[in-house]
């Protein structure tokens, strides 16, 4: 239980919760749309069971994603995807949820929630895997705790979360930069850049401990985090500016 006193564990847990809330707003909308035609007596059951199924599926996907991140260069790909997700968060496309069909059958509504969450949650999966991947043997526990904290906030307080984001756009900006921050860390901790036994011809910008498990932070490690956050901010603002210009014409 020593990990409970680790500042790194709690910082990573905070990142997971923030990512879930920032990227999970759409999931609350999907739940509401999928259950809107259920009889009132079954609506709460549809929300609870559909959300539970989505959580279980997402934990499995994240565990799988974290295992894949041990393969050389996959963290690099994940970092690029995270940068793109962060940029799109700052400059979103105008799209709706008109394709989410409500159902008057409980099992159909649950299936709709689980399938829609599967299709929509890949950004969450990549981001959370990146945030949790340096937590060692407690990474899966961190993911589960993050989901348990954040899902009730999303489901029960979705309207409040949405209103706060609309009133304080800085929350969205901070969320996008957080994804860039994580992407920078993922990039320089890719096994190809860290493991001295792999790709030996390549310079190793980040070192690991004697067991080859924990990354030893250095100036480049933190510089990569900062560079990732600033890159998302710059690209997001640039894309948003171009979108506004296109609409003006």
UniProtKB/TrEMBL annotation:
Signal peptide: none annotated. It is found in: Membrane. It comes from Alicycliphilus denitrificans (strain DSM 14773 / CIP 107495 / K601). The chain crosses the membrane at residues 12-35, 47-67, 138-156, 168-188, 220-240. GO terms for cellular component: membrane. Pfam families: TerC. The keyword Cytoplasm does not apply. PANTHER family: MEMBRANE BOUND PREDICTED REDOX MODULATOR, SLL1022 PROTEIN. Belongs to the TerC family. InterPro entries: Integral_membrane_TerC (IPR005496), Integral_membrane_YjbE (IPR022301). It is a multi-pass membrane protein. This is Integral membrane protein, YjbE family. Keywords: Membrane, Transmembrane, Transmembrane helix.
């Amino acid at each position: 239980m020593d990990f409970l006193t680790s500042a790194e564990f709690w910082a990573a847990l905070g990142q997971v919760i923030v990512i879930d809330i920032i990227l999970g707003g759409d999931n609350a909308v999907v739940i509401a749309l999928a259950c809107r035609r259920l009889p009132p007596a079954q609506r709460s059951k549809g929300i609870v069971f559909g959300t539970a199924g989505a959580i279980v599926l997402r934990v499995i996907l994240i565990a799988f994603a974290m295992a894949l991140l041990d393969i050389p260069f996959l963290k690099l790909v994940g970092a690029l995807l995270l940068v793109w997700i962060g940029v799109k968060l700052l400059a979103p496309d105008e799209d709706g949820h008109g394709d989410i069909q409500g159902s008057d059958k409980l099992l159909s509504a649950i299936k709709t929630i689980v399938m829609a969450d599967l299709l929509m949650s890949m950004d969450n999966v990549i981001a959370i895997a990146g945030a949790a991947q340096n937590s060692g043997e407690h990474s899966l526990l961190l993911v589960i705790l993050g989901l348990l904290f954040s899902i009730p906030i999303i489901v029960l307080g979705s309207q409040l979360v949405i209103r706060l984001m609309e009133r304080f756009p800085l929350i969205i900006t901070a969320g996008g930069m957080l994804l860039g921050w994580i992407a920078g860390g993922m990039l320089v901790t890719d096994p190809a850049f860290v493991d001295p036994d792999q790709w030996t011809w390549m310079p190793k910008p980040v070192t690991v401990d004697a067991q080859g498990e924990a990354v030893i932070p250095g100036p480049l490690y933190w510089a990569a985090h900062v560079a990732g956050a600033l890159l998302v901010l710059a690209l997001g603002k640039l894309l948003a500016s171009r979108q506004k210009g296109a609409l003006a014409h």
